[in-house]
Amino acid sequence: MTAKQSPLFLGIDTGGTYTDAVLWSEEGGPKGKVLAKAKALTTRHDLAVGISGAVDAVLEKAGTDPAAIKLVSMSTTLATNALVEGQGGRVALIMIGFSEADLARDGLKTALGTDPVVFCPGGHDVHGNAAKLDLSGLEAVLPELGRSVSGFAVCAYFATRNPAHELAARDLIRARTGLPVTASHELSAKLGGPRRALTTLLNARLISMIDRLVAATEGFLGHRGIAAPLMVVRGDGALVSAAFARQRPIETILSGPAASLVGARHMTGLDDAMVSDIGGTTTDVAVLDGGRPRLDPEGATVGGFRTMVEAVAMRTFGLGGDSEVALEDGALTPKILLGPRRLVPLALAGMVHGEAVTAELERQLRAPNPGRMDGRFAVRTGVPDRLAAGLTAPEAKLYEAIGATPLALDRLLTSNAQNATLNRLVARGLVHICGFTPSDAAHVLGKQANWDAAAARLGAELFARRRDGRGQAIAATPEALAERVLVTLTRWSAEYILETAFAEDGLDGAATVAHALVQRAVDAHPGIARLTVALDRPVIGLGASAPLHYAGLAALVGNGCIVPEDTDVANALGAVVGQVRVSAEARVSQPKEGLFRLASGQTVRDFTDEAKAIAAAEADVRAIVAERAKDAGTDNAEIDVATEFKVSTIEGQRMFIEAHVVAVASGRPRIAV
């Protein structure tokens, strides 16, 4: 790199369907310049394949020496998609000081599913005083758990006030099993044990997935001679180092959408907008206010679970180009239903596997009557065998029957029980279902042409001959069915955007109102009451398919819809223009009059003077956040410290209750020299 040449930045976004890459330079004005962009299919069995396909194409287009790249930054929707689809590794949850009744709170029992849980006596009170810890029960089951899970999640009662018991359990598990362990105090300083346990559980499930992504990316960069730091986008839009993200993968939920918000603001210059990003698996809707994304103060909600992860106030819906197309049950005139599950589109399966897919579709079309499993296939995802640990006998038998080539479900399944077993394998991330999707509909109508249109049309023919409640085919032609699917997708997109707007305004029943308004807008006979609605700001449409699916959106939301030129790589672009931002917290409480207890990091200390306790807290968080900023990937962070006091006044006397001290460090990521 010459003295006059600006450093080059490589942005990568690994989505559920595509991996995007963009090469960007700070030259070319305040927005910089996109030198090249490219896409490749995300290859879940080996993520490095998709990454190398996208990045190699970018380097070739730009004619750039890989050694000229000084920073690589990556966003991903893999963690978000995994939670939306109910996927992730099998983990053991260790609850210290909790009872079984606590599982019923905050959706923890639902999230746990069939994964094992171990209860141990112990924990602390609100002031950090310890109960007696007994890990003998955990120690007894560790040999068995070590063989059947991919990681552990540990949550202790009031661990945010004293993490000693979590640290003891963590050290024991690591020593006996060597498996990854997530402790709840490492992820959040907030109170609320069950929700903190939920966040920790989800983090443990995601570790292997994010670890594989980072390892694949680092391996590829090494092979290409790119000796640049690797950064990852967090859910609040900030950048952190790859090593940081590996330990806290839960913080990458909404990483892709957060990066897209940064990219949307960068590309359009709009300070106030609704941003709707449609991908293969999800649609993510958020609000830009004053040039910054709104953050969710209560923690990100993904896949129906409210976590303690600070992230953009993003509403994630299971609607995308690869959403499962289904038919409403039991209706005379059934509606088309979309998602939330992602399928491998038949057009994509046909392109990759050829005759193995199209021959089966043709066989099913020759049958005199439509079959319940027509147009559906099962195929292994190609994840490492160790992630299949803990399968039941029926699951293992069915998994053995499924291979790397799609197998038609009407040949694979012989009972309803097997269908339930297959769904469990899909939820574990071991198997993909191939079937008809909006991407296939776009291929049928000639609006998309990157995969096998013939396979898509065969799938549309099979779906179109399904019967309604009167025994009639639901569509006269494959084209009519495809048009109906795409219209439904645009309509649902409008509903989700309006639902997000209503929810941000604090209105109850947001989904019901949004559905009614869009229904009236598209119906030929809207009814006696005329209802209209208009957003106060335009919509920025992001995603490769946004120009197609959002073409009719403006009329449904009452404001303009802007689709930027580089909308197809908004996430990858947002990944390289962000900043590192990390925080640290400490609390000072008063267990008894005259005693001030400081809990910061992994230490608890007592003081007899309030001012000294507060000064120590501020010094602690400043030191902790400075170290975290270095770990997160910046060497020149600016640090701001804020202290919030809770006090009361009794007979004119000030009474100290608690102090909350927060330090925030931010700065541009370090680049290679």
Describe the secondary-structure layout.
Layout: E1 8-14, E2 18-25, E3 33-41, H1 47-62, E4 69-76, H2 78-84, E5 91-96, H3 108-112, E6 117-120, H4 136-148, E7 151-156, H5 164-177, E8 181-183, H6 193-223, E9 230-233, E10 239-241, H7 242-247, H8 255-268, E11 273-278, E12 283-289, E13 292-293, E14 301-302, E15 305-306, E16 315-317, E17 323-327, E18 336-342, E19 344-345, H9 346-353, H10 355-366, E20 377-380, H11 393-401, E21 407-408, H12 409-412, H13 416-427, E22 431-435, H14 438-444, H15 453-464, H16 478-504, H17 510-522, E23 539-542, H18 546-549, H19 554-557, E24 561-562, H20 570-576, E25 580-592, E26 595-600, E27 603-607, H21 610-632, E28 638-650, E29 653-667
Parallel strand pairs: 1-4, 4-9, 5-6, 5-7, 7-8, 11-23, 19-22, 23-24
Antiparallel strand pairs: 1-2, 2-3, 9-10, 11-12, 12-13, 12-16, 14-15, 17-18, 20-21, 20-22, 25-26, 25-29, 26-27, 28-29
Helix pairs in contact: 1-6, 2-6, 4-5, 8-20, 9-10, 9-15, 10-15, 11-13, 14-15, 14-16, 15-16, 16-17
Q: Notable features of this structure?
A:
globular, six-stranded mixed beta sheet, 673 residues, 21 helices
Written overview of the protein:
Helix 1 crosses helix 6 and helix 4 crosses helix 5. The mean pLDDT is 88. The chain is α/β, with parallel strands linked by helices and 673 residues long. 37% of the residues lie in helices and 24% in strands. It contains 21 helices and 29 strands. The strands form 7 sheets. A 6-stranded mixed sheet has the order 3-2-1-4-9-10, with helices on both faces.
